[in-house]
């Protein structure tokens, strides 16, 4: 299975050599990161994200990983993280709605759980809140559990 680093690098049309130079490491190190011989730590994800112009979590999770962890059939309300990040950024519901191209009532419904916060909604709102979509879908504890589950599955395969 290709790593998210390799997929993103190829998506941008970059060479391993260019990424290595950008990060300040060797071509061989980038090869080992891409083929899993070196684990992609948060330190590596942060360094690579700058060169690959993406959020570090995008290098650690695929959309499929997020969908599996979210379990789209599960109707557990995940409105609390959305409200928390909106308030941390100092935005009103109306301000966030305007930035995201939606309505104030829509943001209100997403925050209260009246409307389910899907991955698509999280991807729309996250850039305005300067967070990864996963941060809006999971509280810190459930995101941690999803990370552990992914690591366990990767180590078994």
Brief rundown of the structure:
This protein has helices at residues 4-11, 16-23, 27-34, 42-51, 56-60, 63-70, 79-88, 93-100, 104-112, 119-129, 133-137, 140-156. The protein is mainly α.
Q: What is the 3D form?
A: elongated
Low-confidence stretches: 72-79
First-residue to last-residue Cα separation: 10 Å
Number-wise, the strands total 0
Work out the count of structural domains: 2
The CATH topology of the largest domain is what? 434 Repressor (Amino-terminal Domain)
Number of helices, where a helix is a run of at least 4 consecutive DSSP H or I residues: 12
CATH architecture of the largest domain: Orthogonal Bundle
Order of helices and strands: HHHHHHHHHHHH
CATH superfamily of the largest domain: lambda repressor-like DNA-binding domains
Proportion in β-strands: under 5%
Provide a descriptive summary of the structure in words:
The protein is elongated. The protein folds into two domains: 4-60, lambda repressor-like DNA-binding domains (434 Repressor (Amino-terminal Domain), Orthogonal Bundle), CATH 1.10.260.40; 67-156, lambda repressor-like DNA-binding domains (434 Repressor (Amino-terminal Domain), Orthogonal Bundle). The protein contains twelve helices and no strands. It is 68% helix and 0% strand.
